[in-house]
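Example 4.3 (complexes with small molecules)
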Amino acid sequence: MSSTAAWSSLRSPAPRSWPAGQAIIDAAFLADPYPTYAALREAGPIHWSEEFFGGAWLLTRHADVAAVLRDSARFSAQRTGGWVMQSQAARGELKGFQQLFARALPFLDAPDHARIRGVLNAGFRTDVLQRLVPAIEQGVDALLDAVDAEAGFDFMQALARPLPADVMAVLMGIPASDRSDFITWSDDLAAFIGATMPSLEQARRAQTSLLAMSGYFERLVPQRRNALGDDLVSRLLRAEAAGEVRPGAELLAQCAMLLFAGHETTRNLLGNGLQALLADPQQWQRLQREPGLLPGAVRELLRFNSPVQYTGRRVAADLVLHGQQLRRGDLVVALIGCANRDPARYSHADHLDIARSSRGLLSFGAGPHVCIGAGLTLMEAEIAFGRLLRRFPRLYLVDAQPHWSGNAVYRGLSALPVRQAIAAAL
Ligand code: HEM
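Answer. The structure with protoporphyrin IX containing FE bound is encoded below.
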């Protein structure tokens, strides 16, 4: 049986066509979106769905997702207005949220996007990242030293949640002791971004947390100005002094967005990745025999269960796509998780194969907004998985059913109980 059939058998047979009005989002989709993605892809390259933000075009194919993300002239990244200010009630109340959110790098178009991206790019150069390696290695070791592997532990609590927060703290030059605040704020933002129809309550919580993040940096900035280093906050402050970044909301929005962007994403790469490897013990064992496969394996884990499942764009001017008339201002949802399983791009796309070439991987996006933290993430994941493989070679999943958190964008686990089997006596 092909692995596609195995996935499909988890649900009732996928429809060949996608009748208008048929529901996409339900508990089964949030637990496992891949059968629905397959059905959507087979039914066509583009679908209109009112379940996403009250109405959006969904793109299912690898080629289209890549093309839209690369085409910043026809597809704008500015999309926070209707998202945050969804209702009349929200308009007055959520101004602070919108003011910061709209100025953050992911939601800017040229020329502002290129200006700020240029400032931040320097902080993610390979030589800068290489200097973080010892701190990441020590961080992983300290977190793994604290677990009793043979008694069993929750991988999400022990490593996947704290590690990205600690790494972001180093990168931004802020104390790791504030880690639990960073995680709480990020979780609130992720709940808002990951909701296909965010509620006013989710927007309020996200606003509170985004303002808390921004306030945190507002307090930090005066001290940092007197002691600039090579962390990201210092880079932004130097750029501010040179007139390349505007003071106030623009500067604070970048700080908050950077702090947020590295959390949920990297956490879910670590969690989803370990879950996929342990669910297929042959691949886990193969990685132990052939550690040289690790860099490719991390990319394959990103493809197989993408930590970011979709992103959005607004149509900049009326256009026709696959025979559909898209109007200026329409929202387009690029289904990255669906594109990464497109059989037209990857053979046996529903099968995890740590030795495959994941060329064309869309998990980090593509085009001008391609993830600025990709190199850092790959480095962090290689260190974490490399150490896990060496220290806990007999790790296994405690629960047969994964505990998916149910976030539609940030696909990940709320818990991942694992245990190291006791070595057989010689
Ligand atoms: C597994 C880890 C990660 C994944 C899967 C991921 C995914 C993505 C994706 C898909 C985009 C493009 C969004 C779009 O085009 O709309 C993006 C952009 C971005 N990512 Fe990541 N990311 C990860 C880790 C990180 C980390 C560690 C950082 C920060 C250190 C980071 C910072 C950013 C920023 C600032 C952008 C916006 C870039 C721009 O608009 O130019 N990401 N990421």
